[in-house]
Write a structure and sequence with these properties.
Strand order of the largest sheet: 1-2-4-3-5-6-7
Strand content: 5-15%
Structural class: alpha/beta
Number of strands: 7
Radius of gyration: 16 Å
Length: 203
């Protein structure tokens, strides 16, 4: 279980570029040729966790939990299966908000704009890896937990448009229009187009 020790405003944040530089430095704890992990140590926040490749599926959740390289939780195991099953060579787990919390109810009440800005830099980076970035909307109804989450996602949509990102979902859409969370999907579930602009226009 990970319960935030306090607000992220109390932390001395690594910028995403600093975290990426460290993630590309050889590590004694995991194989950097396989894993992309920034920051490259367990902390109160996480920008990205995934495998390295030229054609990653970028999965968007709400906030990070406890997963690390070589220690994926059930959600990320499902993300990896779906990515490989849909023809991608790797996956990147990204989140609307970078604060780590096992229970979304424990996320901070107010958005830390410094953390959000660095998270957007991380999003730009993962979008730049492939020529035609594919983004899997996979946050479920958890986005309703905090009012600022939809605003963060709107900023991500703008960044995605800069890179020509194509948005997808998998599984059934909820009655309120939310895309399905990765858990409890069939391992052979196929991605389908998701109208992210239309979705956000209703928020």
């Amino acid at each position: 279980m990970h319960i935030p020790s306090g607000t992220t405003a109390e932390l001395e944040l690594l910028s995403f570029r600093q975290a990426l530089e460290a993630a590309n430095t050889p590590s004694d704890t995991y194989d950097i040729d396989r894993w992309l992990y920034a920051p490259n140590f367990y902390s109160e926040y996480r920008y990205i966790l995934g495998t390295r490749g030229k054609n990653p599926l970028i999965c968007i959740g709400i906030n990070p939990s406890t997963a690390e390289p070589d220690n994926l939780d059930n959600t990320l195991k499902s993300v990896e299966r779906i990515a490989l099953g849909n023809g991608f060579d790797s996956f990147i787990m990204f989140n609307v908000y970078a604060q780590r919390a096992t229970n979304p109810d424990a996320m901070e009440k107010e958005c830390n704009m410094a953390l959000h800005r660095e998270n957007l830099e991380a999003f730009r980076y993962v979008l730049s890896i492939s020529q035609k970035p594919a983004v899997w909307a996979a946050w479920g109804a958890i986005i309703e937990k905090r009012k600022y989450l939809s605003d963060c996602l709107k900023d991500m949509l703008e960044v995605g448009e800069e890179y020509g990102a194509a948005w997808y979902c998998a599984g059934a859409i909820t009655k309120k229009g939310h895309p399905h969370h990765p858990l409890y999907l069939r391992k052979d579930e196929k991605l389908k187009p998701f109208d992210i602009a239309g979705y956000l226009a209703e928020r």
